[in-house]
């Protein structure tokens, strides 16, 4: 993957940090799993082979990191496992910060990532997963801007979880990450309940679909069937690799259509 060219610092007004390319008080955290140290996207098996799943997941990550490089925020790639740092850096290239995820369940790791970002001086922080094809720098900017008027921003996913969450520093609420049954369809509603109980009325981003199941891939392929679909521009690596898997996904699509 070839990293895009960063904006020319000389074209920005250094006295206006809010308009700098990567103002330090705005942070984007992207959670990824290294595709080199073990299996990824296992719920896409057996529709896709281990190699296909790895290459497709690589495309998801490459696209979202490429997009977020152009956002006016400091980008941090939070990877697991910790020993994958050299390979992840070599893969995604210079530009982002690279931080290993902490130990514990997903909630523990998200809490530590937010806490570290705020401890380093960030005022607004959003966190996303890496398997949301089509999520753009403009979406990240919109989420960060929502924190001007709301203490929290959240993006629901169609499976009942969420693909993005963000906080202002003074409104950070680690309780939303504790005692949660992750990957359950109640995650989003339980999170909203905890936020409201603590007077944190969230801004909501449009719902999106993360890529966990063959059904999700079928819907994505349906979208890619339109030549002018925004996904072609926002997630070119994903589009290319998913279309390359078409012969393996097509039988599942036909089976899905037959059940309707």
Shape: globular
Largest sheet: 7 strands, mixed
Q: N-to-C SSE series? A: EHEHEHEHEEHEHHHH
Structural class: alpha/beta
Helix content: 25-40%
Q: What order do the strands of the largest sheet run in, or round the barrel if closed? A: 3-2-1-4-6-5-7
Overall mean pLDDT: 88
What is the overall number of helices? 9
Number of strands: 7
CATH homology superfamily name? Spore Coat Polysaccharide Biosynthesis Protein SpsA, Chain A
Computed Rg: 18 Å
Describe the structure.
With 260 residues, this protein is of the alpha/beta class. The chain has one domain: Spore Coat Polysaccharide Biosynthesis Protein SpsA, Chain A (Alpha-Beta Complex), CATH 3.90.550.10. 38% of the residues lie in helices and 15% in strands. The protein has a seven-stranded mixed beta sheet, with helices on both faces. Strand 5 and strand 6 form a beta hairpin. The chain is globular, with a radius of gyration of 18 Å. Residues 1-15 and 254-258 have low confidence and may be disordered.
Could you give a short description of this structure?
This protein has helices spanning 50-68, 85-92, 106-119, 137-146, 187-197, 214-224, 231-234, 236-244, 246-259, and strands at residues 26-33, 74-80, 97-100, 124-128, 152-156, 162-168, 202-204. By secondary structure, it is an alpha/beta fold.
Descriptive keywords:
9 helices, 260 residues, Spore Coat Polysaccharide Biosynthesis Protein SpsA, Chain A, 15% strand, globular, 7 strands, single chain, alpha/beta
């Amino acid at each position: 993957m070839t990293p895009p060219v960063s904006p020319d610092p000389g074209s920005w007004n250094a006295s206006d940090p809010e308009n700098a390319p990567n103002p330090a008080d705005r942070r984007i955290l992207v959670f990824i799993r290294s595709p080199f140290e073990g299996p990824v996207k296992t719920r896409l098996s057996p529709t896709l082979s281990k190699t296909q799943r790895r290459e497709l997941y690589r495309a998801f990550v490459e696209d979202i990191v490429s997009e977020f490089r152009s956002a006016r925020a400091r980008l941090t790639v939070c990877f697991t496992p910790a020993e994958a740092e050299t390979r992840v850096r070599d893969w995604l290239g210079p530009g982002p910060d690279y931080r290993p995820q902490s130990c514990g369940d997903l909630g523990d790791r998200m809490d530590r990532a937010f806490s570290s970002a705020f401890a380093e001086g960030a005022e607004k922080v959003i966190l996303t997963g890496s398997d949301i094809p089509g999520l753009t720098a403009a979406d990240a900017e919109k989420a960060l801007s929502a924190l001007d008027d709301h203490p929290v921003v959240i993006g629901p996913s169609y499976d009942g979880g969420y693909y993005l969450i963000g906080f202002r520093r003074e409104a950070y609420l680690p309780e939303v990450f504790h005692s949660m049954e992750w990957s359950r369809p109640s995650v989003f509603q339980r999170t909203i309940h905890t936020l409201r109980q603590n007077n944190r009325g969230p801004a909501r981003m449009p719902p999106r679909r993360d890529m966990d199941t063959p059904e999700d891939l079928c819907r994505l392929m349906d979208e890619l069937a339109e030549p002018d679909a925004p996904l072609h521009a926002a997630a070119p690596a994903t589009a290319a690799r998913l279309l390359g898997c078409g012969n393996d996904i097509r039988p599942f699509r036909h089976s899905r259509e037959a059940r309707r």
